[in-house]
Amino acid sequence: MSLFRKGLAVLMRIPMKAAATSGQQLATTPPFPPTNDASSSANFFESYPSRKVALNDVKEWMHASISIPSDKIEFVDANLEEFSKGYLSLPQEGRRKLLLVLARDYDVNRARVRELMVQYLNLGFPQEPESISEDEQSRGRVRDEAFLASCYRTERNLRIALKPMYDVFFERLNAHPGGLKILAVLRADLLSVIEKEKLPSLRALDLYLKEKLITWLSPAALHLHQITWDDPASLLEKIVAYEAVHPIRSLQDLRRRLSTGRRCFGYFHSAIPGEPLIFIEVALLKEVAKAIQEVLWDDPPCLENEATCALFYSISSTQPGLSGINLGKFLIKRVIELVRRDMPNITVFATLSPIPGYVQWLLSKLASHLKLGEEETENETDSSEIVFSSTLNEHVLLPEEERMIYESGKALADGNSGIEILYNILSSTNSEWSKSDCLLSALKRPLMRLCIRYLLEKKKRGKTLDAVANFHLQNGAIIERINWMADTSERGIKQSAGIMVNYVYSLEKIEENAMAYFSTGHINASSNIYQCFQEPMEE
């Protein structure tokens, strides 16, 4: 199909996004599309005509789908079909009410569980002969076959009783055509409700459904497909719509991402045909890129036979309801295997990633220091005196760093100290500071040093605070390098002060690195990263 005809087909189906500003952010991050409302969900099911349905009707179809015996499968399918159409037609408030009913009224039958537990406790252990070893006794080993038969029967009944009633609903819906997508939409709505109503019953429902989805979406059930310009316009439409890291600006931009020097791979499931669950974009380069402009504007692209690096620059999930299910881990590994097989000249597999939580973390630290320093500042007899290197901020800025920031930044931001000016600069709604060579020179060393500290030291429950870093580290990558002014877009400046990071996947150490991070929280990084962290950085 010609460029014109393919472009026309895509344009007829989707509105093209506005052109991005210079230096638009592009990096590997596990994002989730923000659209999970009723209208957007319905777009995925064009075969389901829009209609008004009463909430009680949808409840009845759900109840029938759970309670009808499995030998009457034709009635089950009919009710699942009606439920699917009806659920998508409900407004968000209707879906919230339905999910509360599902979580509360179709939970575990605890009366039955209690009854079986009493039966089990009343079975009583028979007296065993003296020949049984102490080890067997300590592990509850019993040789009375009649007694064991009673145990097995009660334990089996307990396992059945401990399954919530909505287990049947999830299993049947998953087996129904289009049901897996409905389950993904349902979980996206559930996550949205949980953000506002942190009820234990809703959390239990979410955890149970998540575990089911992990089983159904195992790598063995997924198909890896290289997405090209020759794919149907309906698929390319979804790539444009779901690209969550770097908006596709034009048809030429889309074509370029799918042609020479670039690859795009997606994971597909047979139950959701024609739509990737997650896709990754790869640039073939001569070396690991230090700035996003190197990836976006290298025209013409590097010759593929001269490339030595496969750079993962965007990973996008298409299903908000699959949040927390790490399909990206398996996708990256499969893509590495495929590229290695087809292009033996590629020896380096890396990313160019944002650090979305960095500035937010730094602003909170600066705000705390400023608050604690108010009393010290008030005691100064001369209010115009510049306050340098107080004991409160010595661990954030070094004395010389603070002085340089004050001298370079006082024309752009108010403040009586370097740390106050830095706070005002980073919290500003504009990014004018990033255009001042003098200020950039003063900010480079402290912001890079603090960024490394943020990535290596700042953790929650033993894992790094930054979501993107956690994603790659748990997949077995190492922190190779951080790059100054690598993303000068408004978003890049706002999130990470323009800094981006290269994560590298060393094939022989992926599993070892992932296990170390998972078990102890240890973060593997290059010697350059640790050297920059421990010593003042060179200008």
From TrEMBL:
Residues 221-505 form the Malonyl-CoA decarboxylase C-terminal domain. It holds the Pfam family MCD. InterPro entries: Malonyl_CoA_deC, Malonyl_CoA_deC_C, Malonyl_CoA_deC_C_sf, MCD_N, MCD_N_sf. Residues 153-216 form the Malonyl-CoA decarboxylase N-terminal domain. This is Malonyl-CoA decarboxylase. It comes from Dendrobium thyrsiflorum (Pinecone-like raceme dendrobium).
